[in-house]
Amino acid sequence: MNGHCGSRSPGRPADDNTRSAVADLAGEPVAGVPTCLSVNSHGPALVRDFLQHYLGCIQIKDRDGFLDRKRNKAFWDEQAEIELSKLMADNGITSKDEVSPEMRQKAEEQVESSIKSLAVSIEAQYKRTQVLRKALSRGSADNLVACVDKSRGKWKASPEYTAGLEKVRRWKGCASVAPAGHHESDLEYGRRHVQDIVKGFRGDNAIEEKIADYDLERDVNAYLIQYTRKPDAVDQANHLEAQHLPLRPIDEELDDDRFKGKFPDQRVSVSLLLETARSRDPHNERNILSKAVCDKKDPTRLRYIHIPSNNMEWIETAIAGYYNDGIPPLSPNHIQSPVKTKTRMLLRPEFWRGQQHGLRSGIVHARYMRPLCERVSTEVHTMEDSPSNIVMFMPYMHWETDRMRNTVSKMIEEESEKHRKTQLKLASDAKKGRIRERKDLGGNGKQLKHLEENPDDPSNMAIIRNAMSKSSRPMPIRTLSGSVRYVVRRKKNGICVAENGRLEVEPPLGQYLIDAARLYEGMSTFRDQQMLERYLYNDPPLHPRRTLDQSHYWTLKTTKARDRDQVVYRGTNINLEFAHRLEEVPLAPPQGSTTMKVVQDAMKELLEGVRSPVAGDATPDPLATHPNKQCQIHKEEKGSSTWGLNRKQKCKKCLLSWQWRGHSPDTDENGCDHCTSEIKKVSKLIMVDQLWMWILDEQTIITSFPRRYGYNKYDLHGIHRSIRNRLRNARKNQIRSVYDLALIILDECSNTFFDRTKTHDSQPQVTDIFSEAIGNVTNKHTISFQHVWHWTQKASGIYRSKSKHMETSDLHVPLLDIHPEGKLQREVKDILDELDIMLSITRRQRELIRRFCKHVENILDPKGRWRNGSDGAPRARQDDGDESDSQDDETAPQAEVDQNGSGAESQETTESPEKSGKTKRDQKKKAKKRDQKKRAKKRDQTRKKKQLDWFHMQSQDLLCEVSDRIDELEGLRDGARSTAQSVNDLLQLKQQQASVVQAWESVNQAAEAVRQGRAIMIFTIVTIVFLPLSFMSSVFGMNNSNFGSNQWSVEQQLQLMFPVSAGIIVISVVFAFYDFLRAIIWSAYTYIVTWIAVRTGIYSVWLEHSENWKSLSLKQKAEKEVLKLKDEVRKARRKRKAQQMAKKRAEEEEGEDPSAATAPVAAKEKRWWWPWPWSTKDVDEETGKRSPPQGQALRVSTGDGARTRDHSQGQNGMAAGPTGGMGRGTGSAR
Questions:
Q1: Which class for 354: exposed (0-12), middle (13-18), buried (19 or more C-beta within 10 A)?
Q2: CA separation (Å) from 1167 to 455, 530, 1164, 1195?
Q3: Count of beta carbons in the 10 Å neighbourhood of residue 107
Q4: Which InterPro entries does this one have (predicted)?
């Protein structure tokens, strides 16, 4: 626990505290201002939540006197001053000298009420903790409570606990740490005083001694915020009527044990809220929701009821309780038209269940209510001209931690798998029941066959289910225990992970803290788990929260990879690229040594055994810098002949040490700010929630939207908490109608990521994260562009170089590698995708708010007399409409008066004076009632006109704010698009440069080829010249009688050789450079060869067999033969498996129905069913019937059901296989 929160100093005025608190709530940084859950002392002005302050700030020993007005006088006196300052501000008083005693008394009463409310909340929290511990201590394979108790006992039995206890006693200067007279078996310290306070104003029965079982509806609290115009004593003394009074907050009495807290934090459990609604008793005065009961108490009361879950069943029950007419059948499967009630009219399919999306897909995150804002009439028999009820479904964005989202996601997957198995079992049981009901049915002696009865059928359901179970098997999810087991090696350094995921460490205190953290997480998520188990697949179902990608890509079965790729997730997660890691590094040189290189060289010589250290050597003694000064290896071998030999295998700690990268000695001693900030990071994601809102009869608002997972009431970033804070700080007469309250709700739901005053560290600043992500991509793009520019300059130098020996091989890899740019392009595409989704949601919000404002204006001004024109200017003669309406209202009564008056005058002569006087008195009374009615109607019209003007101003401000949010998102998207275009341009430039380099290399290669071609041409010419001469010389050089007689002279040989060689050279050159001659010779050759092939019939033979002689045809034939052989093997394998399944099913049926063997079977109805073809040897020669093979299970189909008999012969004999072969058998199915 942190230190005690002290009261303010005597010299510090209360206004300073108030100013700091207001600045803190508004998000303005105040230097040195402490808050709750901090180590610094702070007074009531800085307390955000008194319950959180009681449980998390003050020490346990100070809890007993915290709620005592006398013992904690300074704290509560300061709170009384704060309440008095609020009353002064509300009444326009600036000086304390003007404060009346009644006002001070009212401030004291508010402090006493706050103490009572806090006592109720503290006791409720204690009860909830006990109930959750009881629920978690049973019915769970991983008993978290038992682990905590066990580790706590070990810690208290350890010597560290005893020694630490003595140190704390000496530090506090007391003999005992625990408060005097307190024992562990007693209640929590201070709770007895809390219970006494609660009993003081609620009675002794308000405290339940017995720990109740967990009840989900009792654990979930609904909030009740109320305003009233009912005159109080002061207003009645001043003769002020209700319609002239502004709305002011009101609370239910604290004596009522159903309610906890004060305005605007007054709450009631969902169980109590819906209990009376389910009873359907219209005269039940304890029905909190009932409109009739509320109107009976206070007809001017305005109520706002919030249910913190998108639970359709709770909503239907709450609306039915509001109208006191029971829950009608709302399912679309009801064919008959149900009785029309107000609940039925409000929750018609077109405004409720018919708007639900995703029921047919079966995917949980596909559930949502389609965006809607409509006016609904609840009149049963008549049609309203201007319905006063509004229903609205609007999506909005919030956030959640990745750990909580992942935990709940696994719960949803488990519940989905359970539901799938349950539905399959129900379908299977129903099918078996239908089969049993129809077992006596048969047609023409043929029994109905089912897929399960023919295992050889390729559509066998057993085979299909087996294949589906393999293909639809869920991917393994790494849980906390799996992650820890992956990171931490089992039983290394005293750490291991149990099978249930429990991290086990050696220090008792560390184990106790780990188990306590696991218990806290289990208690935090227990309510969400129970909610999913009970309502996820209920009819109607629960709508869980969805991530940003789940809301947009709802057709995907899973979005885990996309969720972990969100921009906000990357922006709030630890950046591993810049994280400080623990590494093995060489030991630092000792004091007075030389440079590190000298030390490393000396250590290397020691490891290699080059030399031994001598006296006066500069090499340090490894034992002097050894982490363990008592290294036994060095002590035993120091001074021996083996000193320094094989030291690498014997003691590595002499040369290496574990150090954090990027740390200095001062950082290791005082702490690293970078590591501290990185450790505190919590990965977060954007979620898309739903706002369901109903405005009923212009007096009541019912909303439903979820809270963050794992939070009860301490969520500082919850939407409803923000609404309550705005209502708490609202100015006088700011809420004038139920529609103004609805605008606040819509504003808070739509500005979660755009309100700059919410600067809490745990809430992600989404727009800043996106701006930072776009800036990072832009910066990386700039660096990549500089690299490309560098390579371009290098290529330009190569292009302009006059040297013929320039190499461009080092430019190939950087220019052809587009992975860095592709990574940037992927990142910026993700940013654009998410911004488009956020823009789509925000634009939809603006459209729904516009429709809402239009409907409200139509309700407040049905005839359009007070609304502005199309140009925004007020319509002319606004009061003429009122006068005309009032004149129209007076027309009929005035006509009646004139008629009565004329009749009275005509009868004056005949009627007596008494009757005449009575008639005049009646006429005066009627005229007075008409005047009162006229004045009341005029006041009501004036009030509605003022409400409309105020609402119009507030709604226009809200629409402008929503438009500004859209403009901000569009600005981010434009920046992301510009960056994406720059990345594309860079990628194209890089590819173009690579193409230029390749083209330049191609040109160089072409030029080189031309040069080589010219050299080859020279070689060819020389070859053409000398090749014939070489041939002729070879011919003449042959040893034969004609050339070998040596009778020819050289001249004769040259005369023969040169002409022949010249002829060959001329013919070759002509053929090489004369295309026309080559064409003539080729044409002649082609014609001659074709003529010979046609005439001889060779071409006909080729046409007949050309298709079969092609290489492609030969390959295809070979592939068909191979596939045929493989199919035969697969069929044989499937047949063997089918036989085994048939045997196994036959044995199971014999075990399930033992009476089947003794049931009478008619001979004419017996038929043998077998899953494979019969062979001729299985036919009985005498009867002509087929008999099954020996050693196999047979199925006998009779009129009274299917039975299976085992006609196997022998226990260890040879059983015939399905194809007639002999296989090894044991008399039973393999």
A1: exposed
A2: 18, 54, 8, 8
A3: 21
A4: CorA_MIT, CorA_TM1_TM2, MgTranspt_CorA/ZnTranspt_ZntB
